[in-house]
Amino acid sequence: MTERLDGSWFTEIFDRHGSAFSLKVSHKLHDEQTPYQHLEVYATETYGNLMVLDGCVMLTDRDNFLYHEMMSHPALFAHADPKRVVIIGGGDCGTLREVLKHPGVEKVTQIDIDPAVTRASEQFFPALVESNDDPRAELLFEDGVKWVDNCPDESIDVLIVDSTDPVGPAEGLFKTDFLKRCHRILKQGGLMVQQSESPLYHTDSIIKDLRNDMGEAGFDSVATLPFPQPVYPSGWWSCTLAGKGCDVKSFREEDAAAATFARDFYTVEGHRAALVLPPFMQRLLEK
Amino acid sequence: MTERLDGSWFTEIFDRHGSAFSLKVSHKLHDEQTPYQHLEVYATETYGNLMVLDGCVMLTDRDNFLYHEMMSHPALFAHADPKRVVIIGGGDCGTLREVLKHPGVEKVTQIDIDPAVTRASEQFFPALVESNDDPRAELLFEDGVKWVDNCPDESIDVLIVDSTDPVGPAEGLFKTDFLKRCHRILKQGGLMVQQSESPLYHTDSIIKDLRNDMGEAGFDSVATLPFPQPVYPSGWWSCTLAGKGCDVKSFREEDAAAATFARDFYTVEGHRAALVLPPFMQRLLEK
Protein backbone atom coordinates (compact mmCIF):
# COMPACT_ATOMS: atom_id res chain seq x y z
CA MET A 1 0.00 0.00 0.00
CA THR A 2 2.97 2.34 0.28
CA GLU A 3 2.55 5.08 -2.27
CA ARG A 4 5.42 6.05 -4.52
CA LEU A 5 6.26 9.55 -5.61
CA ASP A 6 6.98 10.07 -9.27
CA GLY A 7 9.39 12.61 -10.75
CA SER A 8 6.95 15.51 -10.33
CA TRP A 9 7.77 15.86 -6.63
CA PHE A 10 10.53 17.71 -4.82
CA THR A 11 11.59 15.60 -1.84
CA GLU A 12 13.87 16.50 1.04
CA ILE A 13 15.06 13.50 3.01
CA PHE A 14 15.95 14.10 6.65
CA ASP A 15 18.24 11.12 6.77
CA ARG A 16 19.25 11.05 10.42
CA HIS A 17 15.62 11.51 11.43
CA GLY A 18 14.15 8.85 9.15
CA SER A 19 11.54 11.18 7.67
CA ALA A 20 11.03 13.05 4.42
CA PHE A 21 8.83 15.87 3.17
CA SER A 22 7.71 16.33 -0.44
CA LEU A 23 6.01 19.04 -2.44
CA LYS A 24 4.43 18.55 -5.85
CA VAL A 25 6.27 20.66 -8.37
CA SER A 26 4.96 22.18 -11.61
CA HIS A 27 8.34 23.22 -12.97
CA LYS A 28 11.78 24.50 -12.06
CA LEU A 29 12.14 28.27 -12.27
CA HIS A 30 15.83 28.69 -11.44
CA ASP A 31 18.99 26.64 -10.96
CA GLU A 32 22.28 28.26 -10.04
CA GLN A 33 25.53 27.19 -8.47
CA THR A 34 26.56 30.31 -6.56
CA PRO A 35 30.06 30.63 -5.06
CA TYR A 36 28.51 29.48 -1.79
CA GLN A 37 25.69 27.04 -2.48
CA HIS A 38 23.37 25.39 -4.95
CA LEU A 39 20.29 27.59 -5.30
CA GLU A 40 17.09 26.27 -6.86
CA VAL A 41 13.60 27.73 -7.18
CA TYR A 42 10.58 25.62 -8.08
CA ALA A 43 6.96 26.45 -8.80
CA THR A 44 4.89 24.08 -6.68
CA GLU A 45 1.27 23.15 -7.20
CA THR A 46 -0.03 24.27 -3.81
CA TYR A 47 2.72 26.08 -1.87
CA GLY A 48 3.53 28.78 -4.41
CA ASN A 49 7.23 29.17 -5.15
CA LEU A 50 9.81 27.11 -3.27
CA MET A 51 13.44 28.09 -2.60
CA VAL A 52 15.97 25.32 -2.04
CA LEU A 53 19.60 25.70 -0.92
CA ASP A 54 21.93 22.69 -1.22
CA GLY A 55 18.91 20.40 -1.45
CA CYS A 56 17.26 21.79 1.71
CA VAL A 57 13.91 23.56 1.64
CA MET A 58 14.43 27.20 2.69
CA LEU A 59 10.98 28.64 2.23
CA THR A 60 7.75 28.64 0.26
CA ASP A 61 5.30 31.42 -0.48
CA ARG A 62 2.62 29.66 1.49
CA ASP A 63 4.14 29.05 4.90
CA ASN A 64 7.18 31.34 5.30
CA PHE A 65 5.08 33.74 7.40
CA LEU A 66 5.43 31.39 10.36
CA TYR A 67 9.22 31.41 10.42
CA HIS A 68 9.69 35.07 9.55
CA GLU A 69 7.20 36.32 12.13
CA MET A 70 8.66 34.11 14.87
CA MET A 71 12.24 35.10 14.06
CA SER A 72 11.40 38.79 14.48
CA HIS A 73 8.40 39.79 16.61
CA PRO A 74 9.20 37.82 19.81
CA ALA A 75 12.77 39.20 19.82
CA LEU A 76 11.69 42.77 19.09
CA PHE A 77 8.95 42.74 21.71
CA ALA A 78 11.31 41.13 24.24
CA HIS A 79 13.58 44.17 23.92
CA ALA A 80 12.60 47.30 25.86
CA ASP A 81 13.12 49.69 22.93
CA PRO A 82 14.85 48.19 19.90
CA LYS A 83 16.34 50.82 17.61
CA ARG A 84 19.38 49.14 16.03
CA VAL A 85 18.80 45.68 14.58
CA VAL A 86 21.17 43.35 12.72
CA ILE A 87 20.24 40.26 10.69
CA ILE A 88 22.99 37.73 9.94
CA GLY A 89 21.89 35.66 6.95
CA GLY A 90 18.25 36.19 6.04
CA GLY A 91 19.06 36.93 2.39
CA ASP A 92 15.49 36.20 1.32
CA CYS A 93 14.59 39.44 3.16
CA GLY A 94 11.47 38.00 4.82
CA THR A 95 12.79 38.62 8.34
CA LEU A 96 13.90 42.12 7.33
CA ARG A 97 10.37 42.90 6.18
CA GLU A 98 8.94 41.87 9.56
CA VAL A 99 11.53 43.84 11.55
CA LEU A 100 10.74 46.99 9.57
CA LYS A 101 7.11 46.76 10.70
CA HIS A 102 8.26 47.96 14.14
CA PRO A 103 8.07 51.77 13.98
CA GLY A 104 10.67 52.31 16.74
CA VAL A 105 13.39 50.57 14.73
CA GLU A 106 15.80 53.17 13.32
CA LYS A 107 18.20 50.98 11.35
CA VAL A 108 18.34 47.33 10.25
CA THR A 109 21.45 45.91 8.65
CA GLN A 110 21.12 42.57 6.89
CA ILE A 111 24.38 40.75 6.17
CA ASP A 112 24.12 37.71 3.93
CA ILE A 113 27.20 36.28 2.29
CA ASP A 114 25.35 35.29 -0.88
CA PRO A 115 23.74 38.04 -3.01
CA ALA A 116 22.21 35.36 -5.24
CA VAL A 117 19.66 34.56 -2.52
CA THR A 118 18.42 38.14 -2.45
CA ARG A 119 18.39 38.33 -6.26
CA ALA A 120 16.27 35.15 -6.34
CA SER A 121 13.94 36.57 -3.71
CA GLU A 122 13.51 39.78 -5.73
CA GLN A 123 12.62 37.72 -8.78
CA PHE A 124 10.54 34.88 -7.33
CA PHE A 125 9.34 36.07 -3.88
CA PRO A 126 8.48 39.74 -4.47
CA ALA A 127 6.36 39.96 -1.30
CA LEU A 128 9.43 39.28 0.84
CA VAL A 129 11.46 42.18 -0.56
CA GLU A 130 8.64 44.73 -0.56
CA SER A 131 10.26 46.73 2.27
CA ASN A 132 13.82 46.65 0.93
CA ASP A 133 13.59 50.29 -0.17
CA ASP A 134 12.79 51.41 3.36
CA PRO A 135 15.45 54.06 4.20
CA ARG A 136 16.07 52.27 7.52
CA ALA A 137 17.21 49.09 5.71
CA GLU A 138 20.84 48.39 4.78
CA LEU A 139 21.64 45.26 2.75
CA LEU A 140 25.22 44.02 2.79
CA PHE A 141 26.61 40.99 1.03
CA GLU A 142 29.63 39.83 2.97
CA ASP A 143 30.72 37.40 5.68
CA GLY A 144 28.48 37.94 8.70
CA VAL A 145 31.07 36.67 11.17
CA LYS A 146 33.63 39.18 9.89
CA TRP A 147 31.03 41.95 9.99
CA VAL A 148 30.34 41.15 13.63
CA ASP A 149 34.07 41.24 14.37
CA ASN A 150 34.36 44.73 12.88
CA CYS A 151 31.31 46.00 14.73
CA PRO A 152 31.95 48.27 17.77
CA ASP A 153 31.30 46.98 21.29
CA GLU A 154 27.80 47.33 22.69
CA SER A 155 26.28 48.99 19.64
CA ILE A 156 23.38 46.68 18.69
CA ASP A 157 19.96 46.20 20.32
CA VAL A 158 18.73 43.04 18.59
CA LEU A 159 20.81 40.55 16.61
CA ILE A 160 18.92 38.00 14.51
CA VAL A 161 20.81 34.97 13.24
CA ASP A 162 18.63 33.80 10.36
CA SER A 163 20.88 31.04 9.11
CA THR A 164 20.67 27.74 7.30
CA ASP A 165 21.15 24.53 9.29
CA PRO A 166 24.23 24.12 11.50
CA VAL A 167 26.04 22.05 8.88
CA GLY A 168 27.97 23.45 5.94
CA PRO A 169 28.38 27.25 5.52
CA ALA A 170 26.39 28.16 8.66
CA GLU A 171 28.11 25.74 11.03
CA GLY A 172 30.24 28.50 12.55
CA LEU A 173 27.10 30.40 13.54
CA PHE A 174 26.25 27.75 16.13
CA LYS A 175 29.55 27.81 18.02
CA THR A 176 30.27 29.36 21.43
CA ASP A 177 33.00 31.47 19.89
CA PHE A 178 30.55 33.15 17.52
CA LEU A 179 28.00 33.61 20.31
CA LYS A 180 30.66 35.40 22.37
CA ARG A 181 31.29 37.76 19.46
CA CYS A 182 27.56 38.41 19.23
CA HIS A 183 27.44 39.08 22.96
CA ARG A 184 30.22 41.66 22.63
CA ILE A 185 28.41 43.84 20.08
CA LEU A 186 25.08 43.83 21.93
CA LYS A 187 24.27 46.76 24.20
CA GLN A 188 23.31 46.06 27.79
CA GLY A 189 19.63 45.13 27.61
CA GLY A 190 20.17 43.73 24.13
CA LEU A 191 19.35 40.25 22.90
CA MET A 192 19.94 37.81 20.09
CA VAL A 193 17.72 35.22 18.46
CA GLN A 194 18.75 32.20 16.45
CA GLN A 195 16.73 29.61 14.56
CA SER A 196 17.19 26.41 16.56
CA GLU A 197 15.70 23.53 14.57
CA SER A 198 13.00 21.01 15.56
CA PRO A 199 11.58 20.54 19.08
CA LEU A 200 10.89 16.90 18.22
CA TYR A 201 14.24 16.10 16.61
CA HIS A 202 16.74 18.45 18.23
CA THR A 203 15.74 19.31 21.81
CA ASP A 204 18.42 17.16 23.43
CA SER A 205 21.07 17.99 20.82
CA ILE A 206 21.15 21.29 18.90
CA ILE A 207 18.69 23.17 21.13
CA LYS A 208 20.29 22.01 24.37
CA ASP A 209 23.81 22.71 23.09
CA LEU A 210 22.85 26.15 21.79
CA ARG A 211 21.27 27.12 25.11
CA ASN A 212 24.33 25.94 27.02
CA ASP A 213 26.65 27.72 24.59
CA MET A 214 24.64 30.93 24.98
CA GLY A 215 25.12 30.70 28.74
CA GLU A 216 28.84 30.11 28.30
CA ALA A 217 29.03 33.07 25.94
CA GLY A 218 27.82 35.33 28.75
CA PHE A 219 24.11 35.63 28.09
CA ASP A 220 22.12 35.68 31.31
CA SER A 221 18.69 34.57 30.08
CA VAL A 222 17.60 32.17 27.39
CA ALA A 223 14.24 31.05 25.94
CA THR A 224 13.37 28.58 23.19
CA LEU A 225 10.07 29.24 21.40
CA PRO A 226 8.51 26.41 19.35
CA PHE A 227 6.26 27.13 16.37
CA PRO A 228 4.72 25.18 13.47
CA GLN A 229 6.62 25.17 10.17
CA PRO A 230 5.19 22.64 7.71
CA VAL A 231 8.09 22.56 5.23
CA TYR A 232 10.88 22.05 7.79
CA PRO A 233 11.88 18.67 9.26
CA SER A 234 9.06 17.35 11.50
CA GLY A 235 6.86 20.36 10.61
CA TRP A 236 7.71 21.87 13.98
CA TRP A 237 10.46 24.41 14.48
CA SER A 238 11.93 26.74 17.08
CA CYS A 239 13.91 29.88 17.68
CA THR A 240 16.06 30.53 20.75
CA LEU A 241 16.47 33.97 22.33
CA ALA A 242 19.35 35.01 24.60
CA GLY A 243 19.47 38.21 26.63
CA LYS A 244 22.38 40.39 27.77
CA GLY A 245 21.15 42.06 30.91
CA CYS A 246 17.54 41.48 29.95
CA ASP A 247 15.06 38.69 30.58
CA VAL A 248 13.97 37.19 27.26
CA LYS A 249 11.21 35.31 29.07
CA SER A 250 9.26 38.55 29.40
CA PHE A 251 8.19 40.96 26.69
CA ARG A 252 6.30 44.20 26.10
CA GLU A 253 2.88 42.60 26.19
CA GLU A 254 0.92 45.86 26.01
CA ASP A 255 2.86 47.07 22.99
CA ALA A 256 2.47 43.70 21.29
CA ALA A 257 -1.29 43.75 21.94
CA ALA A 258 -1.58 47.30 20.63
CA ALA A 259 0.49 46.69 17.47
CA THR A 260 -1.56 47.07 14.32
CA PHE A 261 0.91 45.90 11.68
CA ALA A 262 -0.13 43.12 9.29
CA ARG A 263 0.66 39.59 10.40
CA ASP A 264 -0.61 36.08 9.87
CA PHE A 265 0.65 34.16 12.89
CA TYR A 266 2.08 36.20 15.77
CA THR A 267 -0.22 36.87 18.72
CA VAL A 268 0.50 38.05 22.26
CA GLU A 269 -1.03 34.86 23.64
CA GLY A 270 1.03 32.69 21.29
CA HIS A 271 4.20 34.51 22.35
CA ARG A 272 3.37 34.05 26.03
CA ALA A 273 2.59 30.36 25.53
CA ALA A 274 5.69 29.72 23.43
CA LEU A 275 7.73 30.81 26.46
CA VAL A 276 6.42 27.79 28.39
CA LEU A 277 7.94 24.69 26.85
CA PRO A 278 6.00 21.42 26.52
CA PRO A 279 6.89 19.11 29.43
CA PHE A 280 8.84 16.68 27.23
CA MET A 281 11.16 19.52 26.18
CA GLN A 282 11.51 20.76 29.76
CA ARG A 283 12.55 17.27 30.86
CA LEU A 284 15.08 16.83 28.05
CA LEU A 285 16.64 20.23 28.72
CA GLU A 286 16.88 19.64 32.46
CA LYS A 287 18.54 16.24 32.12
CA MET B 1 18.92 17.61 -7.02
CA THR B 2 15.52 16.22 -6.07
CA GLU B 3 16.05 13.21 -3.86
CA ARG B 4 14.18 9.99 -4.54
CA LEU B 5 12.81 7.67 -1.91
CA ASP B 6 13.49 4.00 -2.39
CA GLY B 7 11.23 1.13 -1.32
CA SER B 8 12.30 1.36 2.33
CA TRP B 9 10.00 4.34 2.96
CA PHE B 10 6.33 4.52 3.84
CA THR B 11 4.86 7.54 2.05
CA GLU B 12 1.46 9.14 2.44
CA ILE B 13 0.58 11.50 -0.39
CA PHE B 14 -1.84 14.32 0.44
CA ASP B 15 -2.96 14.66 -3.15
CA ARG B 16 -5.26 17.65 -2.95
CA HIS B 17 -2.66 19.52 -0.92
CA GLY B 18 0.32 18.75 -3.12
CA SER B 19 2.45 17.49 -0.25
CA ALA B 20 3.63 14.14 1.07
CA PHE B 21 5.17 12.80 4.27
CA SER B 22 7.43 9.76 4.50
CA LEU B 23 8.88 7.63 7.27
CA LYS B 24 11.76 5.21 6.85
CA VAL B 25 10.52 1.71 7.56
CA SER B 26 12.48 -1.26 8.90
CA HIS B 27 9.78 -3.85 8.23
CA LYS B 28 6.06 -4.46 8.17
CA LEU B 29 4.65 -5.94 11.39
CA HIS B 30 1.03 -6.46 10.45
CA ASP B 31 -1.27 -6.34 7.42
CA GLU B 32 -4.97 -7.06 7.72
CA GLN B 33 -8.08 -6.31 5.72
CA THR B 34 -10.69 -5.87 8.45
CA PRO B 35 -14.41 -5.70 7.60
CA TYR B 36 -14.03 -1.92 7.75
CA GLN B 37 -10.58 -0.90 6.56
CA HIS B 38 -7.07 -1.91 5.56
CA LEU B 39 -4.94 -1.97 8.72
CA GLU B 40 -1.15 -1.98 8.55
CA VAL B 41 1.54 -1.65 11.22
CA TYR B 42 5.16 -0.87 10.37
CA ALA B 43 8.31 -0.66 12.43
CA THR B 44 9.99 2.61 11.49
CA GLU B 45 13.62 3.54 12.02
CA THR B 46 13.05 6.64 14.15
CA TYR B 47 9.34 6.98 15.01
CA GLY B 48 8.80 3.62 16.67
CA ASN B 49 5.79 1.69 15.40
CA LEU B 50 3.45 3.22 12.84
CA MET B 51 -0.25 2.41 12.39
CA VAL B 52 -1.81 3.00 8.98
CA LEU B 53 -5.53 2.77 8.06
CA ASP B 54 -6.49 2.73 4.38
CA GLY B 55 -3.09 4.15 3.50
CA CYS B 56 -3.36 7.07 5.95
CA VAL B 57 -0.98 7.48 8.89
CA MET B 58 -2.95 7.14 12.12
CA LEU B 59 -0.23 7.32 14.72
CA THR B 60 3.34 6.56 15.67
CA ASP B 61 4.91 5.78 19.02
CA ARG B 62 6.98 8.92 18.84
CA ASP B 63 4.49 11.72 18.29
CA ASN B 64 1.01 10.43 19.19
CA PHE B 65 1.24 12.23 22.56
CA LEU B 66 0.48 15.52 20.82
CA TYR B 67 -2.82 14.40 19.33
CA HIS B 68 -4.01 12.34 22.29
CA GLU B 69 -3.28 15.03 24.86
CA MET B 70 -4.94 17.73 22.78
CA MET B 71 -8.04 15.60 22.09
CA SER B 72 -8.60 15.08 25.81
CA HIS B 73 -7.17 17.62 28.28
CA PRO B 74 -8.52 20.87 26.75
CA ALA B 75 -12.03 19.35 26.57
CA LEU B 76 -11.91 17.91 30.08
CA PHE B 77 -10.57 21.13 31.62
CA ALA B 78 -13.13 23.18 29.65
CA HIS B 79 -15.91 21.25 31.44
CA ALA B 80 -16.78 22.32 34.99
CA ASP B 81 -16.80 18.79 36.41
CA PRO B 82 -16.61 15.99 33.84
CA LYS B 83 -17.81 12.66 35.21
CA ARG B 84 -19.29 10.84 32.21
CA VAL B 85 -17.14 10.78 29.07
CA VAL B 86 -17.74 9.09 25.71
CA ILE B 87 -15.18 8.52 22.94
CA ILE B 88 -16.48 7.79 19.43
CA GLY B 89 -13.70 6.06 17.50
CA GLY B 90 -10.36 6.19 19.28
CA GLY B 91 -9.82 2.44 18.97
CA ASP B 92 -6.08 2.79 19.54
CA CYS B 93 -7.03 3.71 23.16
CA GLY B 94 -4.57 6.61 23.40
CA THR B 95 -7.30 9.19 24.03
CA LEU B 96 -8.92 6.86 26.56
CA ARG B 97 -5.66 6.66 28.48
CA GLU B 98 -5.46 10.46 28.72
CA VAL B 99 -9.09 10.85 29.80
CA LEU B 100 -8.57 8.33 32.60
CA LYS B 101 -5.82 10.53 34.03
CA HIS B 102 -8.56 12.89 35.27
CA PRO B 103 -9.50 11.64 38.73
CA GLY B 104 -13.01 13.13 38.67
CA VAL B 105 -14.03 11.05 35.68
CA GLU B 106 -16.35 8.25 36.79
CA LYS B 107 -16.96 6.41 33.51
CA VAL B 108 -15.53 6.50 29.99
CA THR B 109 -17.14 4.55 27.18
CA GLN B 110 -15.12 4.12 24.00
CA ILE B 111 -17.10 3.02 20.95
CA ASP B 112 -15.04 2.04 17.92
CA ILE B 113 -16.61 0.07 15.11
CA ASP B 114 -13.45 -1.93 14.40
CA PRO B 115 -12.04 -4.20 17.16
CA ALA B 116 -9.00 -4.92 14.97
CA VAL B 117 -7.66 -1.44 15.74
CA THR B 118 -7.71 -2.11 19.47
CA ARG B 119 -6.19 -5.58 18.99
CA ALA B 120 -3.37 -4.02 16.95
CA SER B 121 -2.85 -1.39 19.62
CA GLU B 122 -2.66 -4.07 22.33
CA GLN B 123 -0.03 -5.89 20.30
CA PHE B 124 2.04 -3.07 18.84
CA PHE B 125 1.35 0.03 20.98
CA PRO B 126 1.20 -1.37 24.53
CA ALA B 127 1.70 2.05 26.12
CA LEU B 128 -1.60 3.26 24.66
CA VAL B 129 -3.68 0.47 26.21
CA GLU B 130 -2.04 0.56 29.64
CA SER B 131 -5.18 1.97 31.26
CA ASN B 132 -7.70 -0.29 29.54
CA ASP B 133 -8.17 -2.35 32.72
CA ASP B 134 -9.21 0.74 34.66
CA PRO B 135 -12.67 -0.14 36.12
CA ARG B 136 -13.99 3.21 34.86
CA ALA B 137 -13.26 2.22 31.23
CA GLU B 138 -15.81 0.50 28.98
CA LEU B 139 -14.74 -0.61 25.50
CA LEU B 140 -17.48 -1.28 22.95
CA PHE B 141 -17.04 -2.36 19.36
CA GLU B 142 -20.07 -1.16 17.46
CA ASP B 143 -21.36 1.68 15.31
CA GLY B 144 -20.79 4.92 17.22
CA VAL B 145 -23.63 6.74 15.46
CA LYS B 146 -26.11 4.02 16.49
CA TRP B 147 -24.74 4.06 20.04
CA VAL B 148 -25.35 7.80 20.22
CA ASP B 149 -28.91 7.29 18.94
CA ASN B 150 -29.62 4.78 21.70
CA CYS B 151 -28.12 6.97 24.40
CA PRO B 152 -30.57 8.80 26.70
CA ASP B 153 -31.04 12.59 26.44
CA GLU B 154 -28.67 14.80 28.40
CA SER B 155 -26.64 12.00 29.95
CA ILE B 156 -23.06 12.76 28.87
CA ASP B 157 -20.61 15.42 30.08
CA VAL B 158 -17.88 15.24 27.43
CA LEU B 159 -18.12 13.58 24.01
CA ILE B 160 -14.87 13.07 22.11
CA VAL B 161 -15.07 12.28 18.39
CA ASP B 162 -11.68 10.71 17.72
CA SER B 163 -12.28 9.75 14.12
CA THR B 164 -10.36 9.22 10.92
CA ASP B 165 -10.60 11.84 8.18
CA PRO B 166 -14.02 13.01 6.96
CA VAL B 167 -13.91 10.74 3.93
CA GLY B 168 -14.83 7.06 3.91
CA PRO B 169 -16.17 5.38 7.07
CA ALA B 170 -15.98 8.51 9.24
CA GLU B 171 -17.69 10.88 6.78
CA GLY B 172 -20.97 10.75 8.69
CA LEU B 173 -19.23 12.02 11.82
CA PHE B 174 -18.71 15.43 10.23
CA LYS B 175 -22.34 16.13 9.32
CA THR B 176 -24.79 18.50 11.02
CA ASP B 177 -27.19 15.61 11.55
CA PHE B 178 -24.63 13.72 13.64
CA LEU B 179 -23.68 16.86 15.54
CA LYS B 180 -27.38 17.34 16.45
CA ARG B 181 -27.48 13.81 17.83
CA CYS B 182 -24.36 14.54 19.86
CA HIS B 183 -25.94 17.73 21.16
CA ARG B 184 -29.01 15.77 22.31
CA ILE B 185 -27.09 13.34 24.54
CA LEU B 186 -24.95 16.04 26.19
CA LYS B 187 -26.03 17.41 29.55
CA GLN B 188 -26.43 21.17 29.94
CA GLY B 189 -22.90 22.42 30.55
CA GLY B 190 -21.55 19.56 28.44
CA LEU B 191 -19.29 19.78 25.44
CA MET B 192 -17.93 17.83 22.51
CA VAL B 193 -14.56 17.86 20.78
CA GLN B 194 -13.72 16.66 17.30
CA GLN B 195 -10.42 16.42 15.44
CA SER B 196 -10.66 19.05 12.71
CA GLU B 197 -7.67 18.60 10.39
CA SER B 198 -4.97 21.10 9.37
CA PRO B 199 -5.00 24.85 10.14
CA LEU B 200 -2.94 25.42 6.98
CA TYR B 201 -4.95 23.19 4.66
CA HIS B 202 -8.47 23.16 6.04
CA THR B 203 -9.31 26.42 7.84
CA ASP B 204 -11.62 27.72 5.12
CA SER B 205 -13.11 24.31 4.34
CA ILE B 206 -13.43 21.52 6.95
CA ILE B 207 -12.77 23.70 10.02
CA LYS B 208 -15.12 26.49 8.89
CA ASP B 209 -17.85 24.03 7.90
CA LEU B 210 -17.55 22.10 11.16
CA ARG B 211 -17.81 25.28 13.23
CA ASN B 212 -20.85 26.41 11.28
CA ASP B 213 -22.43 22.96 11.53
CA MET B 214 -21.83 22.93 15.29
CA GLY B 215 -23.69 26.24 15.55
CA GLU B 216 -26.55 24.89 13.45
CA ALA B 217 -26.68 21.78 15.63
CA GLY B 218 -27.44 23.98 18.63
CA PHE B 219 -24.06 24.43 20.28
CA ASP B 220 -23.63 27.92 21.69
CA SER B 221 -19.84 28.20 21.85
CA VAL B 222 -17.09 26.88 19.64
CA ALA B 223 -13.27 26.96 19.73
CA THR B 224 -10.65 25.52 17.37
CA LEU B 225 -7.29 24.70 18.96
CA PRO B 226 -4.25 24.23 16.69
CA PHE B 227 -1.34 22.00 17.72
CA PRO B 228 1.74 20.46 16.08
CA GLN B 229 1.43 16.91 14.74
CA PRO B 230 4.42 15.92 12.58
CA VAL B 231 2.93 12.82 10.92
CA TYR B 232 -0.34 14.42 9.80
CA PRO B 233 -0.77 16.49 6.62
CA SER B 234 1.18 19.79 6.95
CA GLY B 235 2.52 18.72 10.37
CA TRP B 236 -0.02 21.05 11.98
CA TRP B 237 -3.39 19.85 13.25
CA SER B 238 -6.42 21.01 15.21
CA CYS B 239 -9.34 19.98 17.36
CA THR B 240 -12.60 21.88 17.61
CA LEU B 241 -14.64 22.11 20.83
CA ALA B 242 -18.35 22.94 21.01
CA GLY B 243 -20.25 23.73 24.20
CA LYS B 244 -23.89 23.18 25.17
CA GLY B 245 -24.60 25.87 27.74
CA CYS B 246 -20.91 26.30 28.49
CA ASP B 247 -18.17 28.49 27.07
CA VAL B 248 -15.44 26.31 25.58
CA LYS B 249 -13.20 29.38 25.31
CA SER B 250 -12.65 29.26 29.06
CA PHE B 251 -11.36 26.40 31.20
CA ARG B 252 -10.49 25.43 34.75
CA GLU B 253 -7.08 27.07 34.69
CA GLU B 254 -6.33 26.49 38.37
CA ASP B 255 -7.16 22.80 38.16
CA ALA B 256 -5.10 22.44 34.98
CA ALA B 257 -2.14 24.16 36.64
CA ALA B 258 -2.46 21.95 39.73
CA ALA B 259 -2.79 18.66 37.81
CA THR B 260 0.13 16.34 38.40
CA PHE B 261 -0.58 13.56 35.91
CA ALA B 262 2.10 12.60 33.41
CA ARG B 263 2.07 14.45 30.12
CA ASP B 264 4.44 15.46 27.38
CA PHE B 265 2.74 18.40 25.68
CA TYR B 266 -0.26 19.91 27.44
CA THR B 267 0.34 23.07 29.49
CA VAL B 268 -2.06 25.67 30.87
CA GLU B 269 -0.30 28.36 28.87
CA GLY B 270 -0.49 26.30 25.68
CA HIS B 271 -4.21 25.72 26.22
CA ARG B 272 -4.82 29.43 26.78
CA ALA B 273 -2.80 30.35 23.69
CA ALA B 274 -4.47 27.72 21.51
CA LEU B 275 -7.78 29.48 22.20
CA VAL B 276 -6.49 32.56 20.35
CA LEU B 277 -6.23 31.68 16.68
CA PRO B 278 -3.43 32.98 14.46
CA PRO B 279 -4.65 36.05 12.52
CA PHE B 280 -4.71 34.22 9.18
CA MET B 281 -7.16 31.69 10.62
CA GLN B 282 -9.28 34.42 12.21
CA ARG B 283 -9.55 36.18 8.86
CA LEU B 284 -10.48 33.02 6.96
CA LEU B 285 -13.13 32.07 9.51
CA GLU B 286 -14.67 35.56 9.55
CA LYS B 287 -14.94 35.79 5.75
Provide structural commentary:
- 2 copies of one chain form a homodimer.
- By secondary structure, chain A is of the alpha/beta class.
- Helices cover 30% and strands 30% of the residues of chain A.
- Chain A contains 9 helices and 12 strands.
- In chain A, strand 4 (49-53) and strand 5 form a beta hairpin.
- Chain A is globular and about 55 Å long.
- Chains A, B: One of its GO terms (cellular component) is cytosol.
- Chains A, B: Its EC number is 2.5.1.16.
- Chains A, B: One of its GO terms (molecular function) is spermidine synthase activity.
- Chains A, B: Homodimer or homotetramer.
Blueprint of the fold:
2 copies of one chain form a homodimer.
Chain A: E1 9-14, E2 19-33, E3 38-44, E4 49-53, E5 56-60, H1 64-78, E6 84-89, H2 94-99, E7 107-111, H3 115-124, E8 137-140, H4 144-149, E9 156-162, H5 176-185, E10 186-195, H6 199-216, E11 221-228, E12 236-244, H7 253-258, H8 268-274, H9 279-286
Parallel strand pairs in A: 6-7, 6-9, 7-8, 9-10
Antiparallel strand pairs in A: 1-2, 2-3, 3-4, 4-5, 10-12, 11-12
Family (chains A, B): Belongs to the spermidine/spermine synthase family.
Active site (chains A, B): 162
EC number (chains A, B): 2.5.1.16
Using brief descriptors, characterize the structure shown:
polyamine biosynthesis (chains A, B), homodimer, 287 residues, spermidine biosynthesis (chains A, B), 7-stranded mixed beta sheet, 30% helix, alpha/beta, 5-stranded antiparallel beta sheet, 9 helices, transferase (chains A, B)
